[in-house]
Design brief:
- The radius of gyration is 19 Å and the shape is globular.
- Strands 1-2 form a two-stranded antiparallel ribbon.
- The protein has helices spanning 29-46, 49-54, 62-83, 85-95, 99-126, 128-149, 157-175, 184-209, 214-234, 244-267, 273-279, 282-293, 301-318; strands at residues 5-7, 14-16.
- It has one domain.
- The chain has 13 helices and two strands, in the order ββααααααααααααα.
- By secondary structure, the protein is mainly α.
Length: 333
């Protein structure tokens, strides 16, 4: 039986075949809207991490903060996955599934861990401004490419325009801060960080689109990443965790990691990975706003223009497109 090709009503990405949402019911444009809202909410939660880390004790390095966030969040998420009978059964089924799923799990775990290590190393080598804009800005583009290479739907003009606008907005936002010297090694590591995030996003989206619940997928991915990053945390002088303020910051970072990844996982049910990563650029937008409102930072005219540009680009993806005969479908599995 011939399958029609539709266009995702939220993302504008062309999707191959099928017109059903997860669970076998008919898809609705509002499925995509709910997915986009979940991704935006998850990104907003993650956007508070920088402000929270600002209150960490002076001895807390950026690598240590990044590692503890994944170790704590991954421990909780894996606990949620094994603590419920149904989820535990699904997790065992996922771990015992075919080679493709196991490879996807491994790639996702490495992607999450690699992003943390490469990003913070890049920032140390080439500065916050350059490292962040290269890593964050390259993520959506690399995710689109990885998704296409993995057999995902074609990228449309709408996604390209929104992604270009969001990346330019992030560049204005981050570059408006203090200048930093450019290190080729640092830029290279930032690009690897963007690639790692792309691999994680595509792997998670494909696992979830095959019917595995986001709690199980995120529990498996973050749990594995927590195991990989535990030695990094141990080697990063984690003594700051013994203080009341340090422990409070760590627990908050772990909490928003759980909330953020679960929300993004729910969004990946109906939002393709390239779109989800572009929507995830709401994270630096929220971080910038909190810097102004909570930390008393001031935005330049350039940074304000960047915020507006990111917001407009995200709105392009979050608002349903009106297209005759367009039908949203889950990401191709």
């Amino acid at each position: 039986m011939r399958q029609d090709r539709g266009t995702d009503a939220v993302s504008g990405l062309a999707q191959p075949g099928g017109a059903e949402a997860p669970g076998g019911r008919a898809a609705s444009p509002w499925d995509g809207v709910g997915g986009a809202a979940a991704v935006l909410a998850g990104a907003a939660a993650s956007g508070t991490a920088g402000t929270a880390a600002h209150f960490a004790p002076g001895g807390a390095s950026s690598v240590s903060v990044g590692a503890v966030r994944i170790v704590l969040g991954g421990t909780v998420l894996s606990g949620l996955a094994v603590g419920h009978r149904g989820s535990r059964r699904d997790l065992l089924a996922l771990l015992r599934s075919g080679t493709a799923s196991r490879v996807g799990l491994a790639l996702g775990m490495v992607g999450i861990s690699g992003y943390q290590l490469c990003f913070f190393s890049a920032v140390r080598l080439t500065g916050v401004a350059v490292g962040t804009v290269v890593a964050v800005g390259s993520g959506p583009v690399l995710t689109g490419l990885v998704s296409r290479l993995a057999g995902g739907g074609p990228l449309t003009i709408r996604w390209m325009i929104a992604t270009a606008g969001a990346v330019c907005g992030c560049a204005l936002l981050v570059a408006s801060g203090s200048a930093a010297g450019v290190s080729l090694a640092g830029v290279g590591l930032a690009l690897v960080a963007g690639l790692c995030f792309a691999v994680y996003a595509v792997s998670a989206a494909r696992l979830i689109s095959r019917g595995t619940g986001e709690r199980v997928v995120m529990g498996a991915l973050l749990g594995g990443a927590a195991v990989l990053l535990a030695p990094v945390l141990a080697a990063s002088s984690p003594g700051w965790l013994a203080t009341a303020r340090g422990l409070t910051v760590a627990l908050y970072l772990g909490l928003i990691t759980v909330v953020g990844y679960l929300l993004v996982g729910r969004g990946l049910r109906t939002v393709p990975a390239p779109v989800a990563v572009t929507l995830g650029l709401a994270e630096p937008l929220v971080a910038a706003l909190l810097g102004v409102l909570v930390l008393g930072e001031r935005l330049t005219a350039t940074a304000t223009a960047g915020l507006i540009l990111v917001g407009l680009a995200l709105a392009v993806l979050a608002v349903p497109a009106r297209s005759a005969g367009a039908r949203p479908v889950p990401p191709p599995g």
